[in-house]
Amino acid sequence: MANIRDVAKHAGVSVSTVSNVLNGRTDQMREETLARIQQSMQTLNYFPNRVAQQLKTGQAKMIGLLVPSIVNPSFASLVREVDLAAKKRFYRVLIGNTYRQIEEEEAFLEDMFAHGVRGIIVAAGDIEKPHFVRAASQGMIMVNYDSRMPASAGSGGLALDSVSMDNVEAGRLATEHLIERGCRHLTFATVAGMFPESRP
């Protein structure tokens, strides 16, 4: 059975370089070097011992992804992109469907800690909820996707990151596109009781 030294020798690199690949530290690595190491791993049928790595670091090479439902096409697309990005760094993605239920969110967080996962993406959720804040205070790194995070006391002073689209710019681009296509009577439809932010 091949080991990390065999991979390094086959690829013509140092053991530490192979280790950098296995641990996702490839930002400063040339693409041809990375490709050569990956090819050597495949040729030698080398699989890193993830159990040993987790015992050593207390963390797993996995990312949690929490979505309301993967049936929603937008979340299905998100899952695909997250998975592709994770694979480039030899990470796996654990997906949880919450159906917007607090009990499901809490159970998912418990499972992530149990599996050594220390980073999750929460899609269209509120990570200022107590169970998310508690997980963050215990070392879980979280990114809120598609939901803006206003600074509030709910986060308990913790640094909780968020990524969201610019809905105003998206609306402008959509409107311009319709006008360019000859549309002159436009209608904006939204959920009852919800109105866009007023902008000067």
UniProtKB/TrEMBL annotation:
A Pfam match: LacI
Keywords: DNA-binding, Transcription, Transcription regulation
GO molecular function, one term: transcription cis-regulatory region binding
CDD domains found in the cross-reference section: HTH_LacI
SUPFAM superfamilies: lambda repressor-like DNA-binding domains, Periplasmic binding protein-like I
Recorded superkingdom: Bacteria
Residue span, HTH lacI-type domain: 2-57
GO biological process: transmembrane transport
PANTHER family, alphabetized: HTH-TYPE TRANSCRIPTIONAL REGULATOR GALS (PTHR30146:SF109), LACI-RELATED TRANSCRIPTIONAL REPRESSOR (PTHR30146)
Protein name stated in the entry: Mgl repressor and galactose ultrainduction factor
Encoding gene per record: galS_2
